[in-house]
Write the C-alpha coordinates for this entry.
Amino acid sequence: MEGPERIPTVFDIAREAGVSRGTVDRVLHNRGRFSPKTAARVREAVKRLGYSANPNASLLASRRALTLACLLPSYRDGEYWQLIHQGIKEGIEALEGYGLKATMFFYDQTDVASFRAQCKAILNGDKPTAVLLNTVFKEEIRTFTVLLEQAGIPYAFIDNKVDGLGNFLYVGIDPYRSGQLGAFLLTISSAPQEIGLVRILRDKGHQGDPNEPRRQGFIDYISTHFPQCAIQTVFIDPGRPDSILATLKEFRRKHPDIRHYATTNSRVHLIAPFLALHPEMTAVGFDDLEKNLQALRNGSVDFLVTHGILRQAALTVELIGKYLISGTLPGPRNHYVHLDILHRMNLD
Protein backbone atom coordinates (compact mmCIF):
# COMPACT_ATOMS: atom_id res chain seq x y z
CA MET A 1 0.00 0.00 0.00
CA GLU A 2 1.36 3.38 -1.00
CA GLY A 3 1.81 6.11 1.58
CA PRO A 4 0.05 9.50 1.43
CA GLU A 5 0.99 11.75 -1.43
CA ARG A 6 3.58 14.36 -0.46
CA ILE A 7 2.22 17.90 -0.37
CA PRO A 8 4.36 20.25 -2.54
CA THR A 9 6.04 23.24 -0.92
CA VAL A 10 7.20 26.67 -2.05
CA PHE A 11 10.69 25.18 -2.47
CA ASP A 12 9.29 22.56 -4.86
CA ILE A 13 7.67 25.33 -6.91
CA ALA A 14 10.96 27.25 -7.01
CA ARG A 15 12.85 24.15 -8.15
CA GLU A 16 10.24 23.32 -10.79
CA ALA A 17 10.15 26.89 -12.17
CA GLY A 18 13.92 27.41 -11.96
CA VAL A 19 13.67 30.50 -9.78
CA SER A 20 14.43 31.43 -6.18
CA ARG A 21 12.04 30.86 -3.29
CA GLY A 22 11.79 34.66 -2.88
CA THR A 23 10.68 35.02 -6.49
CA VAL A 24 7.96 32.43 -5.93
CA ASP A 25 6.79 34.37 -2.88
CA ARG A 26 6.67 37.63 -4.86
CA VAL A 27 4.66 36.07 -7.67
CA LEU A 28 2.24 34.23 -5.37
CA HIS A 29 1.59 37.37 -3.33
CA ASN A 30 1.85 39.80 -6.27
CA ARG A 31 4.40 42.08 -4.62
CA GLY A 32 7.78 43.38 -5.65
CA ARG A 33 9.15 43.08 -9.17
CA PHE A 34 9.08 40.15 -11.54
CA SER A 35 8.71 39.76 -15.28
CA PRO A 36 5.56 38.37 -16.93
CA LYS A 37 7.68 35.47 -18.25
CA THR A 38 8.86 34.59 -14.73
CA ALA A 39 5.32 34.88 -13.35
CA ALA A 40 4.06 32.51 -16.05
CA ARG A 41 6.76 29.93 -15.18
CA VAL A 42 5.89 30.05 -11.49
CA ARG A 43 2.14 29.76 -12.11
CA GLU A 44 2.66 26.86 -14.49
CA ALA A 45 4.73 25.10 -11.82
CA VAL A 46 1.99 25.77 -9.26
CA LYS A 47 -0.56 24.20 -11.57
CA ARG A 48 1.60 21.17 -12.45
CA LEU A 49 2.41 20.36 -8.83
CA GLY A 50 -1.00 21.18 -7.41
CA TYR A 51 0.50 23.53 -4.84
CA SER A 52 -1.65 25.29 -2.24
CA ALA A 53 -0.30 27.93 0.15
CA ASN A 54 -2.68 26.55 2.79
CA PRO A 55 -3.63 22.89 2.23
CA ASN A 56 -6.26 22.92 4.98
CA ALA A 57 -7.94 26.01 3.56
CA SER A 58 -7.73 24.53 0.09
CA LEU A 59 -9.42 21.36 1.28
CA LEU A 60 -12.13 23.42 2.96
CA ALA A 61 -12.67 25.55 -0.13
CA SER A 62 -12.90 22.48 -2.35
CA ARG A 63 -16.07 21.43 -0.54
CA ARG A 64 -17.98 24.48 -1.69
CA ALA A 65 -18.01 26.71 -4.73
CA LEU A 66 -16.64 30.20 -4.20
CA THR A 67 -17.95 32.53 -6.87
CA LEU A 68 -17.07 36.19 -7.29
CA ALA A 69 -19.45 38.20 -9.46
CA CYS A 70 -17.53 41.13 -10.98
CA LEU A 71 -19.73 44.03 -12.12
CA LEU A 72 -17.49 46.30 -14.19
CA PRO A 73 -17.63 48.73 -17.13
CA SER A 74 -17.14 47.29 -20.61
CA TYR A 75 -14.08 48.53 -22.48
CA ARG A 76 -12.21 48.83 -25.77
CA ASP A 77 -8.66 47.61 -26.28
CA GLY A 78 -6.16 49.73 -24.37
CA GLU A 79 -8.67 51.30 -22.00
CA TYR A 80 -8.45 51.46 -18.22
CA TRP A 81 -10.93 48.70 -17.43
CA GLN A 82 -9.14 46.25 -19.68
CA LEU A 83 -6.20 46.41 -17.26
CA ILE A 84 -8.52 45.98 -14.27
CA HIS A 85 -10.07 42.93 -15.93
CA GLN A 86 -6.64 41.50 -16.70
CA GLY A 87 -5.51 41.99 -13.10
CA ILE A 88 -8.65 40.29 -11.79
CA LYS A 89 -8.06 37.29 -14.05
CA GLU A 90 -4.47 37.01 -12.81
CA GLY A 91 -5.66 37.18 -9.21
CA ILE A 92 -8.25 34.47 -9.82
CA GLU A 93 -5.66 32.23 -11.48
CA ALA A 94 -3.40 32.58 -8.44
CA LEU A 95 -6.25 31.38 -6.18
CA GLU A 96 -7.78 28.71 -8.38
CA GLY A 97 -6.37 26.03 -6.04
CA TYR A 98 -8.83 27.33 -3.45
CA GLY A 99 -11.83 26.88 -5.73
CA LEU A 100 -12.40 30.60 -6.33
CA LYS A 101 -13.97 31.44 -9.69
CA ALA A 102 -15.11 34.74 -11.18
CA THR A 103 -18.05 35.58 -13.41
CA MET A 104 -17.88 38.87 -15.29
CA PHE A 105 -20.88 41.17 -15.74
CA PHE A 106 -20.00 44.08 -18.03
CA TYR A 107 -22.17 47.18 -18.43
CA ASP A 108 -22.04 50.26 -20.63
CA GLN A 109 -20.95 53.13 -18.39
CA THR A 110 -22.75 55.61 -20.65
CA ASP A 111 -26.09 53.84 -20.12
CA VAL A 112 -27.62 53.48 -16.65
CA ALA A 113 -30.17 50.98 -18.00
CA SER A 114 -27.28 48.68 -18.92
CA PHE A 115 -26.04 48.85 -15.34
CA ARG A 116 -29.49 48.06 -13.94
CA ALA A 117 -29.82 45.06 -16.26
CA GLN A 118 -26.54 43.56 -15.04
CA CYS A 119 -27.49 44.14 -11.40
CA LYS A 120 -30.71 42.23 -12.09
CA ALA A 121 -28.76 39.42 -13.78
CA ILE A 122 -26.60 38.99 -10.67
CA LEU A 123 -29.55 38.99 -8.28
CA ASN A 124 -31.70 36.66 -10.40
CA GLY A 125 -28.96 34.17 -11.28
CA ASP A 126 -27.06 31.71 -9.15
CA LYS A 127 -26.30 33.44 -5.86
CA PRO A 128 -22.61 34.50 -5.84
CA THR A 129 -20.45 34.19 -2.76
CA ALA A 130 -19.47 37.85 -3.10
CA VAL A 131 -19.72 40.76 -5.53
CA LEU A 132 -16.96 43.10 -6.72
CA LEU A 133 -18.00 46.38 -8.32
CA ASN A 134 -17.14 49.99 -8.96
CA THR A 135 -19.26 53.11 -8.59
CA VAL A 136 -19.97 54.89 -11.87
CA PHE A 137 -23.67 55.31 -11.05
CA LYS A 138 -23.69 56.22 -7.37
CA GLU A 139 -27.46 56.34 -6.78
CA GLU A 140 -27.94 53.01 -8.52
CA ILE A 141 -25.13 51.59 -6.38
CA ARG A 142 -27.02 52.55 -3.23
CA THR A 143 -30.11 50.70 -4.45
CA PHE A 144 -28.17 47.63 -5.58
CA THR A 145 -26.13 47.29 -2.39
CA VAL A 146 -29.29 47.36 -0.27
CA LEU A 147 -30.53 44.37 -2.28
CA LEU A 148 -27.18 42.60 -1.86
CA GLU A 149 -27.32 43.10 1.89
CA GLN A 150 -30.89 41.78 2.02
CA ALA A 151 -29.72 38.69 0.11
CA GLY A 152 -26.77 38.21 2.49
CA ILE A 153 -24.17 38.76 -0.26
CA PRO A 154 -20.99 40.61 0.84
CA TYR A 155 -19.56 43.13 -1.60
CA ALA A 156 -16.34 45.02 -2.23
CA PHE A 157 -15.45 48.11 -4.24
CA ILE A 158 -12.51 48.49 -6.60
CA ASP A 159 -11.07 51.74 -7.97
CA ASN A 160 -13.73 54.02 -6.48
CA LYS A 161 -16.29 53.80 -3.70
CA VAL A 162 -19.33 55.33 -2.07
CA ASP A 163 -18.81 56.16 1.59
CA GLY A 164 -21.33 55.11 4.20
CA LEU A 165 -22.24 51.75 2.68
CA GLY A 166 -21.69 48.25 4.04
CA ASN A 167 -18.87 47.06 1.79
CA PHE A 168 -16.31 44.89 3.55
CA LEU A 169 -13.43 46.10 1.35
CA TYR A 170 -12.25 48.89 -0.93
CA VAL A 171 -9.00 48.71 -2.88
CA GLY A 172 -7.83 51.73 -4.85
CA ILE A 173 -6.42 55.19 -4.55
CA ASP A 174 -7.56 57.88 -2.18
CA PRO A 175 -9.26 59.79 -5.02
CA TYR A 176 -9.44 63.15 -3.26
CA ARG A 177 -5.74 63.11 -2.44
CA SER A 178 -4.87 62.06 -5.99
CA GLY A 179 -6.76 65.07 -7.32
CA GLN A 180 -4.82 67.32 -4.97
CA LEU A 181 -1.56 65.78 -6.18
CA GLY A 182 -2.52 66.39 -9.81
CA ALA A 183 -3.24 70.05 -9.06
CA PHE A 184 0.07 70.39 -7.23
CA LEU A 185 1.99 69.00 -10.19
CA LEU A 186 0.16 71.20 -12.67
CA THR A 187 1.05 74.35 -10.73
CA ILE A 188 4.48 73.36 -9.43
CA SER A 189 6.35 75.82 -11.66
CA SER A 190 3.89 78.70 -12.08
CA ALA A 191 0.82 80.38 -10.67
CA PRO A 192 -1.89 80.20 -13.35
CA GLN A 193 -4.71 82.69 -13.72
CA GLU A 194 -6.86 80.17 -15.56
CA ILE A 195 -6.92 76.37 -15.90
CA GLY A 196 -8.70 74.26 -18.50
CA LEU A 197 -10.33 71.19 -16.96
CA VAL A 198 -11.27 68.66 -19.63
CA ARG A 199 -14.09 66.30 -18.68
CA ILE A 200 -15.59 63.26 -20.41
CA LEU A 201 -19.16 63.32 -21.68
CA ARG A 202 -20.47 60.05 -20.25
CA ASP A 203 -24.22 59.44 -20.15
CA LYS A 204 -27.01 61.73 -21.34
CA GLY A 205 -28.51 62.04 -17.89
CA HIS A 206 -25.13 62.90 -16.31
CA GLN A 207 -25.68 60.18 -13.70
CA GLY A 208 -22.28 58.60 -14.23
CA ASP A 209 -19.53 60.58 -12.51
CA PRO A 210 -16.92 58.24 -10.98
CA ASN A 211 -14.22 60.92 -10.91
CA GLU A 212 -16.12 63.43 -8.78
CA PRO A 213 -13.97 62.93 -5.61
CA ARG A 214 -10.72 63.29 -7.57
CA ARG A 215 -12.04 66.35 -9.38
CA GLN A 216 -13.11 67.88 -6.08
CA GLY A 217 -9.64 67.34 -4.64
CA PHE A 218 -8.18 69.07 -7.69
CA ILE A 219 -10.57 72.03 -7.43
CA ASP A 220 -10.12 72.43 -3.67
CA TYR A 221 -6.34 72.50 -4.00
CA ILE A 222 -6.50 75.22 -6.66
CA SER A 223 -9.04 77.32 -4.75
CA THR A 224 -6.93 77.10 -1.58
CA HIS A 225 -3.50 77.82 -3.06
CA PHE A 226 -4.47 79.94 -6.08
CA PRO A 227 -7.69 81.74 -5.14
CA GLN A 228 -7.27 84.09 -8.08
CA CYS A 229 -7.32 81.20 -10.55
CA ALA A 230 -10.47 80.43 -12.54
CA ILE A 231 -11.15 76.84 -13.61
CA GLN A 232 -12.86 76.63 -16.99
CA THR A 233 -14.49 73.31 -17.89
CA VAL A 234 -14.93 71.75 -21.31
CA PHE A 235 -16.59 68.42 -22.15
CA ILE A 236 -15.31 66.11 -24.88
CA ASP A 237 -17.09 63.07 -26.30
CA PRO A 238 -14.93 59.91 -26.50
CA GLY A 239 -17.68 58.32 -28.60
CA ARG A 240 -16.99 60.91 -31.30
CA PRO A 241 -13.17 61.13 -31.40
CA ASP A 242 -13.19 63.16 -34.62
CA SER A 243 -14.99 65.97 -32.76
CA ILE A 244 -12.50 66.36 -29.91
CA LEU A 245 -9.90 68.54 -31.60
CA ALA A 246 -12.56 70.92 -32.93
CA THR A 247 -14.17 71.12 -29.49
CA LEU A 248 -10.86 72.03 -27.86
CA LYS A 249 -9.97 74.56 -30.55
CA GLU A 250 -13.29 76.30 -29.98
CA PHE A 251 -12.68 76.22 -26.23
CA ARG A 252 -9.26 77.83 -26.74
CA ARG A 253 -10.83 80.52 -28.95
CA LYS A 254 -13.05 81.45 -25.99
CA HIS A 255 -10.21 81.16 -23.45
CA PRO A 256 -7.03 82.11 -25.32
CA ASP A 257 -4.97 82.80 -22.18
CA ILE A 258 -5.19 79.29 -20.67
CA ARG A 259 -1.77 77.60 -20.54
CA HIS A 260 -2.59 74.85 -18.02
CA TYR A 261 -4.77 71.84 -18.81
CA ALA A 262 -5.79 68.80 -16.78
CA THR A 263 -8.02 65.76 -17.00
CA THR A 264 -9.14 63.92 -13.87
CA ASN A 265 -10.10 60.79 -15.81
CA SER A 266 -7.81 58.17 -17.37
CA ARG A 267 -7.97 59.54 -20.93
CA VAL A 268 -5.59 62.45 -21.19
CA HIS A 269 -4.37 60.87 -24.46
CA LEU A 270 -7.60 62.09 -26.08
CA ILE A 271 -6.44 65.69 -25.77
CA ALA A 272 -2.80 64.96 -26.68
CA PRO A 273 -3.22 65.97 -30.38
CA PHE A 274 -4.53 69.36 -29.22
CA LEU A 275 -1.73 69.77 -26.69
CA ALA A 276 0.86 68.86 -29.34
CA LEU A 277 -0.20 71.95 -31.29
CA HIS A 278 0.68 74.15 -28.29
CA PRO A 279 4.05 73.14 -26.78
CA GLU A 280 3.91 76.13 -24.42
CA MET A 281 1.09 74.48 -22.47
CA THR A 282 1.44 72.41 -19.29
CA ALA A 283 -0.77 69.36 -18.85
CA VAL A 284 -1.41 66.71 -16.20
CA GLY A 285 -3.30 63.43 -16.55
CA PHE A 286 -3.92 60.21 -14.63
CA ASP A 287 -3.18 56.49 -15.07
CA ASP A 288 -0.44 54.66 -16.94
CA LEU A 289 -2.35 53.49 -20.00
CA GLU A 290 -0.04 52.92 -22.95
CA LYS A 291 -1.59 55.81 -24.91
CA ASN A 292 -1.11 58.12 -21.93
CA LEU A 293 2.51 57.01 -21.61
CA GLN A 294 3.05 57.81 -25.27
CA ALA A 295 1.65 61.31 -24.73
CA LEU A 296 4.04 61.73 -21.81
CA ARG A 297 6.93 60.39 -23.87
CA ASN A 298 6.37 62.77 -26.78
CA GLY A 299 6.01 65.82 -24.55
CA SER A 300 2.29 66.52 -24.97
CA VAL A 301 1.69 65.72 -21.28
CA ASP A 302 4.03 66.79 -18.48
CA PHE A 303 2.98 64.53 -15.59
CA LEU A 304 0.91 61.41 -14.99
CA VAL A 305 -0.37 60.42 -11.56
CA THR A 306 -0.54 56.61 -11.57
CA HIS A 307 -0.98 53.68 -9.20
CA GLY A 308 -0.25 50.34 -10.87
CA ILE A 309 -3.63 49.23 -12.19
CA LEU A 310 -2.77 45.54 -12.59
CA ARG A 311 -1.34 45.32 -9.06
CA GLN A 312 -4.43 46.98 -7.63
CA ALA A 313 -6.79 44.49 -9.29
CA ALA A 314 -4.76 41.42 -8.33
CA LEU A 315 -4.49 42.65 -4.73
CA THR A 316 -8.25 43.11 -4.59
CA VAL A 317 -8.85 39.49 -5.59
CA GLU A 318 -6.21 38.28 -3.14
CA LEU A 319 -7.89 40.08 -0.23
CA ILE A 320 -11.37 38.96 -1.25
CA GLY A 321 -10.12 35.39 -1.64
CA LYS A 322 -8.63 35.36 1.86
CA TYR A 323 -11.91 36.63 3.27
CA LEU A 324 -14.06 34.07 1.47
CA ILE A 325 -11.74 31.17 2.28
CA SER A 326 -10.91 31.94 5.91
CA GLY A 327 -13.82 34.14 6.93
CA THR A 328 -11.35 36.72 8.25
CA LEU A 329 -11.88 40.34 7.26
CA PRO A 330 -8.85 41.73 5.37
CA GLY A 331 -7.59 44.25 7.94
CA PRO A 332 -8.64 47.86 7.28
CA ARG A 333 -11.69 48.21 5.08
CA ASN A 334 -10.02 50.87 2.92
CA HIS A 335 -6.83 49.54 1.30
CA TYR A 336 -5.35 52.61 -0.36
CA VAL A 337 -2.71 51.88 -2.98
CA HIS A 338 0.23 54.23 -3.28
CA LEU A 339 0.43 56.99 -5.89
CA ASP A 340 3.28 57.24 -8.39
CA ILE A 341 4.38 60.34 -10.30
CA LEU A 342 5.55 59.78 -13.86
CA HIS A 343 7.54 62.35 -15.83
CA ARG A 344 9.62 61.99 -18.98
CA MET A 345 12.71 61.90 -16.77
CA ASN A 346 11.62 58.70 -14.95
CA LEU A 347 9.28 57.13 -17.50
CA ASP A 348 11.67 54.38 -18.58
